[in-house]
Amino acid sequence: MYNLIRHKVDFGLEACWTFTATGHGKSAGDGIGAVLKSTTRRSTLSKNILLSTAKDFYEFCRNQQLETAKKVNRDSPTVHVFFLDADEIEKTKANILDFRVEELKKLRKKNISFILHNHIYLGKIQGIRSLHEFQPTDDTTIQCRLTSASTHIKTYSFK
C-alpha cells in the first residue's frame, strides 16, 4: 500500500487500486484492450502476419491506430498505445522500488504504524482482505472502501 501512496510522488500520476471479480466492474481500458487484441488477431490472421513479441504487438497496434487516424483525417489516433521496455521497468525498480523496500525496512525497525481514528495499528491495515478499493489522498494517507461505491471509508496514515 505504501507504494500506492507514493505513486504520484514517484511517477507524477495519481493511482487507485480497485480489486474486482473476474468479468465485473472493469474500466474502459479493458474494453479498449479487448478491441485492440481482437482487431489485431483478425488482421494478422487474414494477412498471415506473425507477431512474436510484445514489442511486435505494440508496433502493429500503434501503426494500425495511426493509419486509422489518417483515414479519418485526424492528426492523432483516438487510442494511444504505449510500450514499456523491460530495461525501463528494471531501471524504475532499481531507482525507485528497491529504494522503497529499504525505506520500509527502516520504518519497520522504528515500529512505524498506521493510525486509524486515533487507534494505532502496527504495520498493517486491519481487515485488508475485506477491502476492495484503495485511494491515496496525499503522500502519507490512503482511503479504503469495501467497494468502489462504498460511502463508508476507512482512512489510514503512515506516521
Describe this structure in words.
Residues 114-122 have low confidence and may be disordered. The protein has one domain (2-19, 28-158). It is an alpha+beta fold and 159 residues long. Strands 1-4-5-6-2-3 form a six-stranded antiparallel sheet. The chain has five helices and six strands; from the N terminus they run ααβαααβββββ. The protein has helices at 2-5, 7-11, 28-47, 54-71, 86-109; strands at 17-18, 114-116, 119-121, 133-136, 141-145, 153-158.
Distance between termini?
14 Å
**Oligomer type:** single chain
How many domains, as an integer?
1
Radius of gyration: 21 Å
Shape: elongated
Low-confidence blocks of residues = 114-122
> What average pLDDT do the residues reach?
81
- Spatial ordering of strands, largest sheet: 1-4-5-6-2-3
Main beta sheet: 6 strands, antiparallel
Residue fraction in strands: 5-15%
Approximate helicity band = 40-55%
Structural class: alpha+beta
How many beta strands in the DSSP annotation? 6
What's the tally of helices? 5
List SSEs in N-to-C order.
HHEHHHEEEEE
Detail the topology: elements first, then pairings.
Blueprint: H1 2-5, H2 7-11, E1 17-18, H3 28-47, H4 54-71, H5 86-109, E2 114-116, E3 119-121, E4 133-136, E5 141-145, E6 153-158
Antiparallel strand pairs: 1-4, 2-3, 2-6, 4-5, 5-6
